[in-house]
Each structure stands twice: as C-alpha cells, then as structure tokens.
Design a protein that fits this description.
The chain has helices spanning about 15-25, 40-45, 45-65, 80-105, 160, 180-190, 210-220, 280, 315-330, 360-365, 380-385, 415-425, 430-435, 445-455, and strands at about 5-10, 30-35, 110, 115-120, 120-125, 130-135, 140-145, 155, 170-175, 195-200, 225-230, 230-240, 245-250, 255-260, 260-265, 270, 305, 345, 350-355, 370-375, 390-400, 405-410. By secondary structure, it is an alpha/beta fold. Strands 1, 2, 3, 4, 5, 6 and 17 form a 7-stranded mixed β-sheet that branches. Strands 8-15-9-10-11 form a 5-stranded parallel β-sheet. It has a 5-stranded antiparallel β-sheet with strand order 18-19-22-21-20, with helices on both faces. The radius of gyration is 23 Å and the shape is globular. The structure holds 1,4-dihydronicotinamide adenine dinucleotide. 1,4-dihydronicotinamide adenine dinucleotide (NAI) binds near residues 146, 177, 178 and 181.
C-alpha cells in the first residue's frame, strides 16, 4: 500500500491539471486513469481530435472556395480519409504523451486502472488499495442516452464514434444542434456529406445570445447544413449500414422520418461516476446526477472533493481546469478561486462563435439596464483580406456604469478574441477602458475595440 497527500481520480483536463498543481505545491500526488493514455475525453476522443478534423476540413473548404480567388490555381485537393485519421491520431498521441511527460517531470504517480473509493481516505485501483489524505474526483462525463436509440458507434454514433468513422457518410443526420452536433456536423458537411440537423428547440445552440444564434444558423445553412427545428426525435431504427430517424414536429405533433448512413446523437452529456462507490460512501448527489459540492469543491464526505463535468456548471474543459487548480490550492491549505461569471464558451466551427458573461436574454430577465456595442467584421480590413468578414462582435455593458457585462462574437478567431474581454471583465473594466486601449492594425481584434467604441461615442469604421 502506498500513501499520498492527494489522489486524483481521472486524468482529463480537470484531473491532470489538478495533479500538476498539487505536485507544484509540494504535495505527494497520484492520479488514477484506466484509459491507456492520459488526458481523458478531451484529449483522446473530444476537444483535441475534433479540432484536428475541423482544421483539416477547413483547409479543404479554403482550397475549394477561396484559393482561386487569390490566384492560387490548380487541382483542388481530394480527401484521403485514412491519412486524415492518421493525422488526427498523431495529434492525440502528441498531446497525451505531453501529459505523461508532465506527470514524470512533476513526479506524479500514474496509478493505472479504474479507481473506486472503498472508504474515505482510501482509493482502490485493481487489487491495490492506496491511502490518500485528500481524494479529488475528476471523472468527467459521458454521452447521455436517448430512449429509443441504441448506439453502436458505427451507424448510430456519439461524438466518439463520429471521430473515427470508417468512411465519410453520404448522408448524416445529427440529433441536437448543440456544440458537438454543429462542430462535427460542419466537419462532415465540408468533407462532402449531406448533413441534416434535427433540434428539439426552435433555435440552435441553447443558451446562446439569440442574435448570434440566428446569424450562426444562417452561416451554417450557407455552408450546406440543413435544419429541422422544433422536432423531438422519437427513435432510430438501424441496420448494419443504414438508419431511419423518426421525429415528431412539436407544432402539430406530426411524425416524419429521415434516412441516413450515419446518425450522430449529440443531445448532451451526463456526469460519469459509475463504479466509484459513491452511494455506499454516502456522497450526496444532485437530482441531475452530479456530485454535490460546496464553494470549495468539497463533498459532504470529509476529504473527498469533486470537480469538472462530474459536478454542476458548464461541461467545459477549461472550467474543469480552473476548478482543478483551485481545489489543489484548497487541499494545500491555501485559497482556491474560480470566477464562474467569466468562463468563456467557444464553438470551433468556421466562423468560430465565442461568448462570455451575460446575454441580452439573461439581462432582460434580471431587469438590468444595458447598452449594446456592435461591430461587423465587414468593417475590418484584415477580415476582408482573409475572406472572414461574416459575423460581428457584440459587447453588452451596464447602461449607467459602462462596466462590461458580457460579450458575444461570431467571426474569425472568435475563440481567441474573446479573451481580451475576459481579462477586461476580470478587472471590472468599462467598455471605454477597452475602447481606449491601442489595438494593433490590421488585426481582427480591432473589431473588439470598435464594438467597445460602439458602446460609447461610436465606432470609426461603421
Ligand atoms: P448540448 O447540450 O450542447 O446540445 C444538445 C442539443 O440536443 C440541445 O440543443 C437539445 O435541445 C437537443 N436535443 C435533446 N434531445 C433531443 C431530441 N430528442 N430531439 C432533438 N433534439 C434534442 O449537448 P452536446 O452538443 O451533446 O454537448 C455536450 C456537452 O459537451 C456540452 O455541455 C458542451 O458544452 C460540451 N462540449 C463543448 C465543446 C466546446 O466547448 N467547444 C465541444 C464539445 C462538447
């Protein structure tokens, strides 16, 4: 039996970041992981591989649509799917090996196997029991099942199967117009598949600023994705090579079907806590199956903490990372802090979509007076040069104090641009603070400054 200050269960972005910070703070640290590689869903079957396919398919789109306009002529590239998969697998390997290297560098023990907690202060991995003063559960999430749908990860797939299809489908039906459905749907649309998205709500991307959501849907439609909104999928009948999706239109309860070679089920994820033994330990859960924690990520059982997708809040890798660092500080007897009001969200389509803080809808609901500063990328020289002028930046600021309350960007590099607004919000900045900051020309980030100017006396290039 070995003894640790902290054992973290799960090596996704929450768990591995927590382990590294614990080790940096001088704690004897181990991390339990049952997969053959470190990095969890994000690095192995989520964020990282999907970004590889998004990047590759975007390059194809550029070659097909924009190269000739720039005077780059010649045969446009064809898709070698096997090679694209190999590239994606190599990106995964580079990243997972990177985490392994960081574990070695920080002297973190990787306890290989699936962990459980037989009692507080003990973690069982395989036949071995290890002692730990503190245990952090970072076991993440898994796709939530939909009744009437059986996943085979070949014809009816979750995001995991969708990343490793044996061939590019001729027709794909995506159930759910959330982040996963739209990112992977746009990959296959760019690679030549006919993509139909069925969504329960009457708009895509639930929770997103409505104006951005509408513009986003318009742009995706232009790229060839088709949408059936206000439709609840009832069941999927599948053979070894084909599937039929049955859905009901909410407006009149009429039923219809859609055929597909592949059906991607992207209707949300749920916490993954199977096999940990939480019920026997008496760990309290929420009614949504999340581990209940207090403000310091502690469960009701002394010495057991939980972070990331397994607890409440947005299921985002970077939220888990922040909680991982914060709980490490708590365990080390210091103060951990996460500002849940400033957690950006990004959809890595083209164009990207990014947001932080309040939406117009949440501000209206709270009855908080606000003003809007908007600037379209059409007025941004760099965006025009790069065929990326569709979309806009929208900043929401307090009507009285000018303090930035939220921001929404659809456009080039939105996922990177959002961060200057995050920093501004962390410092309690006003839109004027942002507007008075010199921005290099010509950059996309000038559009952020222009939107900040639009909260005051007005933008220059509009
Ligand atoms: P989601 O919650 O974003 O979207 C699911 C969609 O499915 C919703 O719009 C919902 O209304 C719809 N839906 C549910 N049941 C349905 C039915 N029977 N028929 C038709 N539509 C139905 O879930 P998603 O896309 O699966 O993502 C899961 C989690 O992973 C999210 O929390 C997301 O934030 C996270 N994620 C984040 C990424 C990023 O930050 N770029 C990338 C991938 C995932």
């Amino acid at each position: 039996m070995s003894s640790y200050d902290v054992i973290i269960i799960g090596s996704g972005p929450g768990g591995y970041v927590c382990a590294i910070r614990c080790a940096q703070l001088g704690l004897k640290t181990a991390c339990v992981e049952g997969r053959e590689t470190l990095g969890g869903t994000c690095l192995n079957i989520g964020c990282i591989p999907s970004k590889a396919l998004l990047h590759a398919s975007h390059q194809l789109h550029e070659a097909e649509h924009n190269f000739a306009k720039m005077g780059l002529k010649g045969k446009s590239p064809s898709v070698d799917w096997k090679q694209m998969q190999a590239y994606k697998d190599d990106v995964i390997a580079q990243n997972t090996r990177g985490v392994e290297f960081l574990f070695k560098k920080n002297k973190i023990d990787w306890l290989k196997g699936w962990g459980s907690i037989p009692e507080a202060g003990k973690v069982k991995v395989g036949d071995e029991i290890h002692e730990a003063k503190h245990i952090v559960i970072a076991t993440g999430s898994e796709p939530s099942a939909l009744p009437g749908i059986e996943i085979d990860e070949k014809v009816v797939v979750t995001s995991e199967g969708a990343l490793s299809l044996t061939k590019i489908p001729r027709k794909m039906v995506v159930i759910g117009a959330g982040v996963i459905g739209l990112e992977l749907g746009s990959v296959y649309a760019r690679l030549g598949a006919e993509v139909q998205v069925i969504e329960f709500l009457d708009h895509i991307t639930p929770g997103m600023d409505a104006e951005i959501s509408k513009q986003f849907q318009r742009l995706l439609k232009k790229q060839g994705l088709e949408f059936t909104l206000g439709a609840a999928v009832q069941k999927v009948d599948a053979t070894k090579t084909k599937a039929k999706v049955t859905y009901k239109l909410r407006k009149d309860d009429s039923e219809a079907t859609m055929d597909a070679d592949v059906v991607l089920v992207a209707t949300g994820r749920k916490p993954y806590t199977d096999g940990l033994g939480l019920a026997d330990l008496g760990v309290e859960m929420t009614d949504r199956g999340q581990i209940k924690t207090d403000d310091h990520w502690a469960t009701n059982v002394k010495g057991i903490y939980a972070i990331g997708d397994a607890i409440a809040g947005p299921m985002l890798a970077h939220k888990a990372e922040d909680e991982g660092m914060a709980v490490a500080e708590v365990v080390a007897g210091r103060h951990g802090h996460v500002n849940y009001g400033v957690i950006p969200g990004v959809i890595y389509t083209h164009p990207e979509v990014a947001n932080v803080g309040e939406t117009e809808e949440t501000l209206k609901e709270a009855g908080r007076p606000y003003k809007i500063g908007k600037f379209a990328f059409m007025g941004n020289g760099r965006a025009k040069a790069n065929f990326a002028a569709e979309g806009f930046v929208k900043i929401l600021a307090d009507k009285e104090t000018d303090r930035i309350l939220g921001a929404h960007i659809i456009g080039p590099m939105a996922g990177d641009l959002i961060h200057e607004i995050c920093v501004a919000m962390e410092f309690g900045a006003s839109a004027q603070d942002l507007a008075m900051t010199c921005h290099a020309h010509p950059t996309y980030s000038e559009a952020v400054r222009e939107a900040a100017l639009a909260c005051g006396d007005g933008p220059i290039h509009a």
